[in-house]
Specification:
This is Glycerol-3-phosphate dehydrogenase. It comes from Marinobacter halodurans. The chain has 505 residues and is an alpha+beta fold. It has 3 domains: 172 residues, FAD/NAD(P)-binding domain (3-Layer(bba) Sandwich); 155 residues, 2-Layer Sandwich (D-Amino Acid Oxidase, Chain A, domain 2); 105 residues, Alpha-glycerophosphate oxidase, cap domain (Helicase, Ruva Protein, domain 3). 29% of the residues lie in helices and 25% in strands. The chain contains 13 helices and 20 strands. The strands form 3 sheets. Strands 3, 4, 5, 6, 11, 12, 13, 14, 15 and 16 form a 10-stranded mixed sheet that branches. Strands 1, 2, 7, 8, 9, 10, 17 and 18 form an 8-stranded mixed sheet that branches. A two-stranded antiparallel ribbon has the order 19-20.
């Protein structure tokens, strides 16, 4: 067999934000693409972020101007491409004179405003806090600036959905057991973890986008030395009842030079994070420690009138970020930039491996990696993703879309309609197709989750179990009881699974 006779042009291993981004971009350029993910989409690092589309204000302190400029430019593009799952957010930075000096903060915010073209977001300014502030009385001054919020897990799922719409085959719960070169092509053995069945495919090129497993894949599946090692850093977050009623997020400075975000979350909660702790072991087993909980709560209590205790934590999550190993230094100073390594030449089938990265620059990373892939496919089309809406994102205003849904579905409660706008955007029309009343939504499982939505998620978004639905397709796990989650799992047991065999070939 020669490369000209292979099943696929490209196999991407890894269903996080980078892997789905590359699969989407490559499929849109005409490359026959397969994406495999050993668990659920966004089941690791990509669903464990601080949920921000941001330039990274604190990266300026480490002189990462190129990264910040690129991230700021991408922030604008992403806010336009997915207005259902991303939106502007205003941040307040309380000032304390014994930490960073005011001139440094003002300089940083000036650079943040001007390093890249800014059209959608307001610039920064100084503010005063009065007696109605949720902050402790000693804090009277601060600064404001703009960034963006994102539902990170849905970003990954919708990117995979866009890849499929462009012709890619998306295989979740499918492990890359082995991949070996056969001259100018790859022979890849895939294992369906739901059925136990294996499938062998061939491809011209491969991408290793497995995040914190990027080096391990070389050892376990490719059986060749890894060109680089990554530094695994655990970042943990806690979710607590809403600390304050204001729409703004807060960015808090700490004496150890770290910053912590306090972000309005899912209407009734506040999201607090993140930590930076070096990590060893299986990334899937990362959990928050008592020390991290105390650290986050301690910083919040230093700033806010409303004091927290560990008993206030209603949910926590930890993710392992695969950062480029810089041979030492603190975890918080490790670079969030990315690189990719190309192994090709001498008649060898090409392999591209992704190291590092951050969610804000995923599209740019994917574009750069696909540009490099296209060196091997001169017939491929041009890059195209910068102005391409993600599925459901073909609208401009959440309020306008909500009003449209109120007219089209007058029987749909406003709160539920608003959640659909912020989750599915215009894909809500597919979810509600043929439905004329709330009775048509099927069984109510709790927290405004109905059988029709669950069935939509299994048919269109690769959801398999209750955890997929409660924590990655939605965040209703914050409101569902254990009994309700069990009922969802029972319902799913009677549904046909959208597995690899049902994906587009």
């Amino acid at each position: 067999m020669s490369a000209a006779e292979t099943d696929y042009d490209l196999v991407v291993v890894g269903g996080g934000v980078n892997g789905t981004g590359i699969a989407m971009d490559a499929a849109g350029r005409g490359l026959k693409t397969l994406l495999c993910e050993m668990n659920d989409l966004a089941s690791a690092t990509s669903s464990s972020s601080s949920k921000l589309i941001h330039g990274g204000l604190r990266y300026l302190e480490h002189y990462e101007f190129k990264l910040v400029r690129q991230a700021l430019a991408e922030r604008e593009a992403l806010l336009r491409n997915a207005p259902h799952i991303m939106w502007p957010m205003r941040f307040r930075l309380p000032y304390q004179s014994h930490l960073r000096p005011a001139w440094m903060i003002r300089t940083g915010l000036f650079l943040y405003d001007h390093l890249a073209k800014r059209e959608l977001l307001k610039g920064s300014n100084s503010i005063r806090f009065n007696g109605n502030s949720p902050l402790i009385p000693e804090i009277t001054r601060g600064f404001e600036y703009s960034d963006g919020w994102v539902d990170d897990a849905r970003l990954v799922v919708l990117t995979a959905k866009a890849a499929e719409e462009k012709g890619a085959r998306v295989m979740t719960r499918t492990r890359c057991e082995r991949a070996e070169r056969a001259g100018d092509h790859w022979v890849v053995t895939l294992n369906d973890r739901l059925t136990g069945k294996t499938e062998t495919v061939t491809c011209k090129t491969m991408v290793n986008a497995t995040g914190p497993w990027v080096s391990a894949l070389f050892r376990d599946s490719l059986h060749i030395p890894a060109p680089k090692q990554i530094r695994m850093v655990k970042g943990s977050h806690i979710v607590v009842p809403r600390i304050h009623d204001e729409p703004e997020a807060y960015i808090l400075q700490n004496a150890d030079e770290r910053i912590i975000f306090v972000i309005p979350y899912e209407d009734d909660f506040s999201l607090v994070g993140t930590t930076d702790v070096d990590y060893e072991g299986d990334p899937k087993k990362a959990v928050i420690s008592d020390e991290e909980v105390d650290y986050l709560i301690g910083i919040v209590n230093d700033y806010f009138r409303n004091k927290l205790t560990p008993d206030d934590v209603v949910w926590s999550y930890s993710g392992v970020r695969p950062l480029m190993d810089d041979e030492g230094g603190s975890a918080q100073k490790a670079s969030r930039d990315y690189t990719f390594e190309v192994d090709a030449g001498d008649g060898k089938a090409p392999l591209i491996s992704i190291f590092g990265g951050k969610i804000t620059t995923y599209r740019k990373l994917a574009e750069a990696a696909t540009d490099r892939l296209c060196d091997f496919f001169p017939e491929a089309g041009p890059n195209w993703t910068r102005s391409a809406p993600l599925p459901g994102g073909d609208f401009t205003s959440q309020e306008d879309l909500l009003n449209e849904f109120k007219t089209a579905y007058p029987w749909l409660p406003t709160g539920l309609a608003r959640r659909y706008v912020r989750t599915y955007g215009t894909c809500t029309r597919t979810l509600l197709e043929g439905c004329q009343s709330m009775e048509g939504m099927g069984h109510h499982f709790g927290a405004n989750l109905y059988a029709r939505e669950i069935d939509y998620l299994t048919r269109h978004e690769w959801a398999v179990d209750a955890e997929d639905i409660a924590w990655r397709r939605t965040k209703l796990g914050l409101r569902l009881t254990a009994a309700e989650l069990s009922a969802i799992q029972d319902h799913l047991a009677n549904q046909p699974v959208r597995g690899p065999s049902a994906s587009t070939a």
